[in-house]
Amino acid sequence: MNQSMRVATLFFLVVLAAGCASAGKSRTSRLTAGDILETAASVRQSLANDPWLSGRGNESPPIRLGISEAVNKSNDRLATSDRWALTALVVYDRSVQSLLESRNVRVHLPEETQAMLGRMGIGSDGAPAGAVGGDAPTHVLLADVRSISRQGSAASSVSDERYDLYVIDYRVAELTSGRIEWSHAAQVARRAFGTVAD
Fold this sequence. Notes:
Helix content is 35%, strand content 26%. It is α/β, with parallel strands linked by helices.
């Protein structure tokens, strides 16, 4: 075996060993679709247990709830579909729709917003009942995405670990006064291993 073949074989084994050592560890700290689904589930739970909504009944004054695309203030790039999914998946959930209807809250989604969400694959099973109306929304579901990143290493001088904490601040605001009726901060922690050269 000549010298260049030995070097190539040694290089291949080193790369293979590094890959095996990091197997099972995440290689990215970006938000995933699973993170967005988990976040939407925690928001649904918070909304269901909040005194603002639980204090309402079928005879309460009607609320028309619109949604807005989440505002990305994090250091991560979020696709338009991900930003819309952070709010739309909350109101597209059947249990939330039932809860809102029992509290005299109707989801207000213009046809063009429903069509756009459908093209993104969000809510393809149908919009919330009574989602389209002639009247403007009285309240809106908003979300801001923020993040904090840390990098470091446990064993060497080369930074090979990254930790990102995403905080998604949800709130329902009354449009006339700007008053915040409900708020919830969902957190997602992501950790990744490896170097940029990997």
